[in-house]
Amino acid sequence: MTTSSTSSASSASLDSVLALLRAPQHDEELLEQLALEVRLLPLGELVYLVETRPATEAALLFRVLDKELALAVFEELPPLHQAELISGLRTPQVADIISDLDPDDRALLFDELPASVAERLMHGLDADERAMTTAVLGYPRHAIGRYMSPEVLPLRPTMTTGEALEHVRAHAAEPETIYMLPVVDGTRRLLGVIGLRRLLLSEGDELVGDLAHEAVHAYATDDREDAARRFLDAKLLAMPILDRENRLVGIVTIDDAFGILEKENAEDSARTSGSEPLPRAYLSTPILRIVRSRIVWLLVLAVSAILTVQVLEIFEDRLDQVVILALFIPLLTGTGGNTGNQAATTVTRALAVGEVRVRDLPRVVWRELRVGATLGSALGVLGLLIAGLIYGWPIGLVMGTTLLSVCTMAAIVGGLMPIVAKKVGADPAVFSNPFISTFCDATGLIIYFTIATAVLGL
Question: Which domains does the chain have, with CATH numbers?
Answer without folding.
Answer: 8-138 (1.25.60.10), 161-272 (3.10.580.10), 286-456 (1.10.357.20)
